[in-house]
Amino acid sequence: MLDSSVNDAVVTTRLDTVVNWARKNSLWPMPFGTACCAIEFMSVMASKYDLARFGAEAMRFSPRQSDMMLVLGTVTNKMAPVIRTIYAQMAEPKWVISVGVCASTGGMYRTYATLQGIDRVIPVDVYVPGCPPRPESMICGVMKLQEKIEKESLSMRKDHIARFYESLDRQRALEAEKGLTGHQAVHEMLLSAADNGVATIF
Ligand code: SF4
What we know:
Layout: H1 4-9, H2 15-24, E1 29-33, H3 36-45, E2 68-72, H4 80-89, E3 95-99, H5 100-105, E4 126-128, H6 135-151, H7 157-178, H8 182-195
Parallel strand pairs: 1-2, 2-3, 3-4
Helix pairs in contact: 2-6, 3-6, 7-8
Iron/sulfur cluster (SF4) binds at residues 35-37, 73-74, 100-102, 107, 131-132.
């Protein structure tokens, strides 16, 4: 028979469960704000909606110190290599929430200059619909991400991340080989992906 004091003191669990519990409750957001959705996000962080209630109040403007990027606004094709570099610089594990129709699909900007969805160049974990999404929708997006993190296994992310870094190596190789800028290299990769019937470059 177990000593009752030992019985009360011992709790067993899985490593994944504990790590994921800590990760989901200590997200460090980094806003990548390019347009009006970023203004809406300000109210999410302020006292009325208060994202701190979800353990995500430590907002950082440095990718090295963040693990949850929120893309808030229209992203142009010229910004595509920038967003890829910032994503690459974030510490792993890292997650991305695409906020609003502009970030998710290009929105109403069906033009040659606008990236038709950031998921063409970086992995996205959660999409928040709306133009702009209400603060409640953004909070819902964070909660959906928390649910996702809860179910992730520690090894599951490896492939996902490896594919992205492999595409970044291809981009760098193209830049060096043909003397292209980051923007031109990503554009060329998007065109060749489209020739193969896919929309993403990773
Ligand atoms: S989705 Fe709407 S509110 Fe958000 S950046 Fe685009 S136009 Fe602005």
